[in-house]
Amino acid sequence: MFQSCFLTYETNKSVVVKSWSVGIINRLVQLMIISYFVGYVFLYERAYQEADTAIESSVITKVKGFGKLENNVMDVADYIYPPQIDGKFNCSTNSCVFLFKGIITGVCNTSVGTCESEGWCPAEDDSVKIKPMAEFVNFTIYIKNSIRFPLYNVTRGNFPPTIEPKKCIHDRISNSLCPVFRVGDILNQTTHNVTELAEKGGEIGINIEWMCNLDQDVELCLPKYSFTKLDAPFEKSKISKGYNFRFAKYYKTADGTEFRTLHKAYAVRFEVKVTGTARKFSLIPTVINVMAALTSIGMGTILCDIILLNCLKGAQQYKEKKFEEVGLKRSTVRLSVRRGNNCYSDSGAISISTDY
Predict the structure, then answer these.
(1) How far is residue 336's CA from residue 339's CA, in Å, rounded to a whole number?
(2) TM segments (predicted)?
(3) Which terminal CB of the chain, N or C, has fewer other CB atoms within 10 Å?
(4) Which among 206, 210, 219, 171 has a CA at the least distance from the CA of 91?
(5) What pLDDT does 65 receive?
(6) What pLDDT score was predicted for residue 277?
(7) DSSP assignment of 74-86, as one string?
(8) pLDDT score recorded for residue 25
(9) Are residues 158 and 63 in the same domain?
């Protein structure tokens, strides 16, 4: 018994079962496994890219241009406030100025039922209308962006050496790599109402996307620029429309009287966002993924064998076709099919014994 059951050799045998039900089950299982595997690979690759090909980025902006506001010449020091922070900067197009004198203590007038509030006087007046600075559409914005993919130790900048600095103005068709942008061209792409934007302010996103195939020449790793209307969800809003902020400048006269100038500035807020992905072929992950896919497809065969051997009416007939015990003599080969479950299991193997 030990010799016949332990000292054996097993090899595979293929049996074609013509059954609609089993065939459908087999294909459905294979499809489900393939779908699961593809989804798994996609999520794995995405997580891998986010974890390992995360982009490191630095952004510096410079704005140039002159304009007029209330007959006052405005330059960068006047309309860019506050300075750039984390790739964000404000370009003021309109500003209301209020001159306040002294600090007063609130006094109530009981006859009319009012009280004076302690604070700077006079109070802010939103009814003041000032003609906005129309020249802002001709301002230029230079964006200096350097990026690095730490996984591959690849560093790139957004100003290729082939660009002539003095002739560089961004055009998405003829000069798409130039990082100097005219404000009016950006507004044309975001479909902003220029007049309303100058009066009430707004928000614009400048997107820099780096999609790099590092199997190619690294010089082909170049940025793509696009622009987004960030305040679009609030266009129909009756409150908080546009963008404005307040800041104050304080000073004293010779006699010690304290004054402040309050500025309510309407501005276009620009936000520069940098994203990117770098890819490079790697043999080991590719082989692992392919082998895992091929192995997973075989699960359909295992499930169908379980159904055929245990669940269908013709299970015994299938066993007789699938499992054969072949006895071999020294000079001749004798094939014999035994019915039953002697020494072999439902693994789809053929049990071969040798007689001497």
Answers:
(1) 10
(2) 290-312
(3) C
(4) 206
(5) 93
(6) 87
(7) E-HHHHB-S--BT
(8) 73
(9) yes
Would residue 106 count as lying in a domain?
A: no
Q: Could you give the number of structural domains in the chain?
A: 2
220: three-class secondary structure by DSSP:
helix
Which domain does 295 fall in, by range? 16-48+282-310
Q: Which residues make Cβ contacts (< 8 Å) with residue 59, sequence separation at least 6?
A: 87, 143, 144, 145, 272, 274
Query: What is the structure's pLDDT at 138?
Result: 93
Axis-axis angle for helices 315-322, 299-310 (nearest 10): 120
Residues 138, 225 share a domain:
yes
The position carrying tokens 């996307």 is 209
**Same domain (yes/no): 172, 262:** yes
pLDDT at 59 over 60: yes
Q: What amino acid is encoded at 327 in this protein?
A: G
Gap between the Cα atoms of 230 and 227, Å rounded: 9
- Residues 304 and 236 both lie in one domain: no
226 versus 43: the higher-pLDDT residue is 226
In the prediction, which pLDDT does 228 show? 93
Q: Let me know whether 254 and 286 are in one domain.
A: no
Q: Which residue has the tokens 């957004």?
A: 158
User: Using CA atoms, how far apart are residues 173 and 243, in angstroms rounded to an integer?
Assistant: 31
Taking Cα atoms as reference points, which of 96, 145, 149, 102 lies closest to residue 121? 102
Q: How far is Cα 270 from Cα 257, in angstroms, rounded to an integer?
A: 38
The CATH number of residue 25's host domain is: 1.10.287.940
Average of per-residue pLDDT across 212-234: 89
- 44 and 186 in a single domain? The answer is no
Looking at 225-229, 246-250, 281-285, 337-341, which range is the least confident one? Answer: 337-341
Domain harbouring 145, CATH code: 2.60.490.10
Q: Which residues share a beta bridge with 228? A: 205
Cβ 142 vs Cβ 180: under 8 Å: yes
